[in-house]
Amino acid sequence: MADPQVMQVAIRPKPAEEPPQHEAPAQRRQTVCHFFARGNCTRGVACAFLHEGRAPRATDQRRPAPCKYILQGSCRNGNSCRFDHLVRPDLDGSAVATDSTEPTLTDDWIRDMAAGQVHFSDGAAVAKVVLASDLSAVRLHNLPIESTETSVATWFKSLGLDVPVRSIRLYPAEGRDTSPSAVVRVEDPHFAKTLCDKLVSRPTGLDDIEATPIPAVFYGKEALGSSLRDINSKKVAVSWYRPTRTIWLNFRNEGTAVKVQDGYASGSYKILGQQVETAEVKVSSSTLVWTVTLLAVPVDVTVEEVRSSLPRHLSPRHIELGKASFEADVDAACTTVRLMLKSIGALEWWQHGTHLGGKRTKAQAVFFDEADARKAVEFLHDAPLTFGWSLRLTVRLLPSAKFRVLTRIYEVCRARINELQPTWRAQYLRFDEYPPVSRFTTVKIEAEKMKNVVQAKKALEVIFAGDIAMGDNGATLWSPALVVDGTMFQRLRTIEAELGVAVCRDKRKKQLRVFGCQPACDRAMAIIAEIMTNLAAEVYNIELTKKQVEWARNGGFQDVRSALKGRPTKFDMLSSPKRIVVAGCRADYEKALKIVSAGLLSSDPGTADSGECSVCWCPPDDAVQTRCGHIYCRECFENLCHSGASSQSLIECKGSADTCKKPLALAELEEKLDSATSEAVLEESAMSHIKRHPDKFRSCPTPGCEQVYRVGTAIMVVCPDCHVATCSSCHEQHSGMSCGDYKDKTSGAFEASQKIKAELGIKDCPKCKTSIEKIEGCNHMTCECGTHLCWECLRDFESANDTYDHLAKEHGGVFGNDYAGIDDW
Hints:
Blueprint: H1 4-11, H2 25-28, H3 34-38, H4 68-72, E1 87-89, E2 95-97, E3 110-113, E4 116-121, E5 125-131, E6 136-141, H5 149-158, E7 168-171, E8 181-186, H6 191-200, E9 210-214, E10 231-232, E11 235-241, E12 244-251, H7 254-266, E13 277-278, E14 282-284, E15 289-298, H8 303-308, E16 318-321, H9 330-342, E17 347-352, E18 360-367, H10 370-380, E19 394-397, E20 400-406, H11 407-426, E21 430-433, E22 440-446, H12 450-465, E23 467-468, H13 487-499, E24 502-506, E25 511-515, H14 518-534, E26 538-543, H15 546-563, E27 569-572, E28 579-584, H16 586-598, E29 624-625, E30 631-632, H17 634-648, H18 655-658, H19 666-672, H20 675-691, E31 697-699, E32 708-710, E33 716-718, E34 725-727, H21 739-760, E35 762-764, E36 771-773, E37 780-782, E38 788-790, E39 796-797, H22 800-810
Antiparallel strand pairs: 1-2, 3-4, 4-5, 6-8, 6-9, 7-8, 10-20, 11-18, 11-19, 12-15, 12-16, 13-15, 14-15, 17-18, 20-22, 21-22, 23-25, 24-25, 26-28, 27-28, 29-30, 31-32, 33-34, 35-36, 37-38, 38-39
């Protein structure tokens, strides 16, 4: 909360008369200096009026009129148009300045997931997890009228409690007989009880502040985060009426006066391009003069401009201009309104359109905190303004959502988006498209009603998600040949060009996604299904040992590619163990296998970083370069991000044959991934982190419930979704009894369960106790918590290689003693 004196100035009504000359300077300093707001006050610090928050002046006061075609959507004249293109239609249809100067809002990299907040650091690693059960909150009542967040924090210190200012949300008094209140939320589950105990034991009469425990919910920007795909509610639109004047037009006869009055009322005659209101024609009985009264005319109109608004034969006998409804410099008025917003919370951005016409002056502001934007609407909407008698401020919240997608996908989806535009315009929802940057296009939707933004956001998510390619039988269309950039891949590129669609491979899920108009997408799927029916392609994997990986890096992989003479071949850096993938016939596979087995180095080994993708070691397709200088195919880069986030909760560069290992910065991930992929990667990292730390987090035992609780010491945790109470120590539902009593009561069932598991060959992970069943394969097992296990003795290891070494040493090989010697680990 800013200085309360500023808040009082911002909402007090203007006095009926000017203050007397002997008024104290301290009182006059509550009013904004008009000259300082214009940038030309000569008194400096000696000035008796307020010098704060000078508003920037428009660079060109003679700006041309807004282009009516750009307000309708587009103008064919482009930059050569002589009318103003730096405007767009507001939600009510009037013109407002574009937000092209609006800064890119910084992402705090905090997301709401798994019943709490997840804080991310570079590499999409989880830096911190805050669950609702970790928090405690209270509401403070009867605060002093002059309270600020800082003064409340000081009061806590007097009680021996250290509460950060950012944890305090102050709410001004709602009426004359009320006092301010505050909501305080602290990352300490015992805070509310501790505070209430201290207030009970405080000396009588120390103060009247009271505290009431409340649910510790996430609020403000922390409720939604600030990612591109989330709905952002930190922006407000403000407006207030411009000063106006009344104008009287005198005529010699009644017929002319009535005709003029009808012309203004119907909009046939306008002043400065605006329709004006009129009063009934009145006649003076003494002078026989008929008068037409024009109401709320812009204050800067001149007599000549009024006269020129009428045909010459209807020109009035006399024109009289009334006094302005209020006197206020435009820049000073904007500064006053901006100070009113700042009294609620810090502003990240501010813009006003003083050069635009209309009956109202309009501005927009973005708060650093979403809670402050909502407070501004609650406390400043319809608040009186100091620079105009009976003048009030209008404040409305502008929720918005942004999407960042590949430009090639956006271009083919543009027609589907255009079909939605008439509905959006009817809902006063605005759609903005930003110029492409680094092969990505960002679009934004904004409206005054949250439900309209939510509906439009869901529609765009469906469009930008594309359609999964399906055959006539309902099966997903996929071929192993799509793993490499071979004949099938080239056919997809041809289909894209012919049908105007975009086709993307998802190698992790073994899916194709098709983007574009629905008829074109359906046609593309039919062609893909036909190609896959006629294409007989086999894909072979050659798994490599550590020594063979080093051999491949030093030129061996290039030898394989050369020997296969252009056959689709790639290196899979993300698999474990690493492997070479060959698409072709059995003879190609055997030829490649023979080269790998021989392990002979090329006479010209080269390096894996000579312009090739750092994952597949092939010429990159739609290349992406990291800040550390390594190159990736775009698909390989996305797969790297998914793989790193889901397997180890850390995305590291695989450049220089997996020796770079630099965590990719969050800003770099945001720059090189579309918004959907970026958010999916963060969610995968969060879930992987939770599963990999069963000693800290556990999932709610209710089937289908996705909530998470923190492991503790015999504390019953109630799920906020399904309301099931679970012991945070033994993870069983035994409300009303201790862990020991529950175990004794259920020990018979436990022994029977273990016996059945032994008969079925099911074993429990020694770390998280998850039941595991082995169906086939080697004796190296990986639990969903990330633990590497030896199936023979259930020893756990840090990595797969450590497990393989143990199997070879203790159990005669990865398949046991009966198969010793079949592998070379």
